[in-house]
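Backbones bend. Shown next:

***
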Amino acid sequence: MFGREFSNYPEVLLHSFSQMSESYGKRKKDRKNLLTILQKVYLMVFGIPEIGLQIRSLYFKDFLTSLNRDEIKTILDAGSGIGIYSFYLAKEFPTSEVFGVDLDKYNIKLSNQIKRDLKINNTKFIYGDLTKKSDQNKYDLIVNIDVLEHITDYKKVLKNFYNLLNRNGYLYIHTPQANQKRIFKSLEKWHHEDHAREGFERKKLISDLKKAGFKIVKQEETFGFFGKLAWELNHLSLRKGFIIAGLLYPILYVIGSIDLLLKNQRGLGIAILSRKD
């Protein structure tokens, strides 16, 4: 499970939950020693108990099997957050350099602290804006996971990604879809406060990628029925409190994992692997 390396940083639980909804991150922090120890043990066993993160990570790991790993020498985690995917990539590609870029200075500070503590030497985290032009032909792989929906001028970012990639470099994108249907009515009006848009229509995003110069290698609908069910129950349990959410999480993880075994006709998200020829 993703996020075990954060077991010594239980404060990331609130930060991670705040990415789902600001209201989850506003819960009072309890610094009692016993609770802090229990949080550390929980993170060590289960990783970060956010179903959305874990399902996205499972799809990400699956898509990585499509790559020729010998070709991957430099990697950009575009919108790296607290470094979850960067640290995973650093371990999976130990001879490669992994660069995490984010607009949130707290994320960069925490990621660099964890990097030093865990002695993960093939990573580097820097502050950066994905809408700004940067060096060309620099990376063999760019990953952009649930970030594009936060960016107003996303087409500029897609073109920047194309320019940043070396020839035959890969771009992996995961993003929510537009016009999402809920199972539970209480979540019908749920939205993410920081989104520039709810999500993307799959065909439109693929068209935009092709216009930017990319060739589509693989695409999948993510968060089908079982993924959606686990994700929504995770949200509902968080409304009841962290203890209930923590107890339910292992069960929801199993339910969510079923999502990868099925061919989803329509999901809450899209995963796309494309390539620069």
User: Anything to note?
Assistant: Residues 80-129 form one domain. The first strand starts at residue 74 and ends at 78. The beta strands are 74-78, 97-102, 123-127, 139-145, 165-176, 214-222, 269-276. The two ends are 34 Å apart (CA to CA).
